[in-house]
Amino acid sequence: MGSNIHAPTVASGPTSGGAPPRDLSKLGMVDLMQEKERIEEELSALSSFLGSHGVNMNTSLTTFDGFPRDDIDVAQIRTTRARIIRLRNDHKDVMSHLEKGIHNHFANLQRAQTAAQSGGLGSQPSVTGNNTSGTGASGLPFAKVNSVVPGSPADQAGLRVGDTVREFGSANWLNHERLSRVAEIVQQSEGRTVAVKVVRKDPSSSSSIDLSLQLVPRRDWGGRGLLGCHLVPL
């Protein structure tokens, strides 16, 4: 038989029999970040594999009369989807431990500030400043707007170059998977409103402002893509 033209260029099957799962509770913040990046890299590669075959996590793998499609490698795509689901669960566990670490970090800062104030240093500037308002567990920016095409859906929604994205629909810093989740949301939301929360630097001061925007992905705006903007992960 000839070579399988649907074979992925990255491993997409289960990894049972490999190294045992790591005990996340024993990892420091640096190791947790490395584990997060490793999982996100694999998720990005697997999502690209699905996309190269014209499918995503929700695409039907059967014909209208219930038979397996013959234009794709159904078994391989099912294996890839199963791997993505496992990796997403692993990613959620890693982010949960990172979230606890961040909460502990801000709690320690708060305790240090309280101790300093009780020691007669109450006139000192706040340690946390405005950071705590924009760095909650679900509000850390995860992407930056790199370009916006005039007249595009992104432009009409109010997105501006330099904005950092905290939430894009259901995607946030805990689950965006190197923006692959954002791409899924855009493809599945054509013609529908997507809530987007961004942080924008105030040009009149050194502070930042939080904005809630309404973005409608669509094709008929006269340019390429559904948004007309380019996002880069932070």
Automatic annotation (TrEMBL):
Residues 119-202 form the PDZ domain. Keywords: Chaperone. This is Probable 26S proteasome regulatory subunit p27. The keyword Chaperone applies. The keyword Chaperone applies. GO terms for biological process: proteasome regulatory particle assembly. Belongs to the proteasome subunit p27 family. One of its GO terms (cellular component) is cytoplasm. Residues 1-24, 113-135 are annotated as: Disordered. InterPro entries: Nas2_N, PDZ, PDZ_6, PDZ_sf, PSMD9. Residues 113-127 have a biased composition (Polar residues).
